[in-house]
Fold this sequence. Notes:
- By secondary structure, the protein is α/β, with parallel strands linked by helices.
- Strand 4 (100-103), helix 4 and strand 5 form a beta-alpha-beta unit.
- The chain has a single domain, classed as TIM Barrel (Alpha-Beta Barrel), CATH 3.20.20.70.
- Helix content is 46%, strand content 12%.
Amino acid sequence: MNWKGVLPAITTNLKSDLTVDHEALAAHCRWMIDSGCTGIVLCGSLGEAATLSFEEKIAIVRTSVAAMGDRAPVVLGIASLSTAEAVAMAKAAAQAGCQGLMVLPPYVYTSDWPEMKAHVSAVIGATKLPCLLYNNPVAYQTDFLPAQIAELAREHANLHAVKESSGDVRRVTAIKAAVGRRLDILVGMDDAIVEGVYAGAVGWVAGLVNAFPAESVALFDYASRGDKARAAALYEWFLPLLRLDTVPKFVQHIKWIQAEVGRGTPFVRPPRLPLVGVDLELTKAVLAKALAAQPKL
């Protein structure tokens, strides 16, 4: 499992009847890897995991694994209302061919460190697959502090990485101070990627990559090799798009943009509704400006 580079948190392509479009899903996975991404992350928040059934998620894994073959690893996001279901999903993902797991705290229920530790420990320990701990206190109201992440790393040999989405880039250096080189650190917020890389992150679980993979890979590469002039120029162009990854309707924004560039469908499952009004006008304006000034790589 390679946790370095750009790993798209892919959207889940849906048909107009809101069933999963497995043919489009497979094609999308291949496009991401053809564009230079290093892996695929399935059924995260951007993948509308909360609206997908257990069976749908495993079917998505099978389609993606078949599409990737030996080209790149497939990672499943493990999030559930219960620990028992999360553990069962981890085991089913391993049987379906996943090469890694992205481990989230439980949906809805937020509690203290002992309970959160028990939950993620059960999921990490359910298989031998390499695991990525997902820290997103804004979305999930659970904040895995650097010392707690270090505790998990000491107890679980197959915890290999952390996706840091607190919005505080200082967390990258704090986690490094706590764990040294024991864990790979990945940025999970699109509009913090350059700052995160400069602080020491080695990977990016990305969102707008679903519509602009070549630009995403180039931006990560420029920042990683210290080409600050090129990184700054591309980041300036990209930031209005990247900021759409960190707003409540980020799924609708990104899927709409994908559809506009001919690489997906805009359909979302309720309670999400299609973009209308001010939200749609914002996305149209951001995309139009970006396309008018799209850089040559």
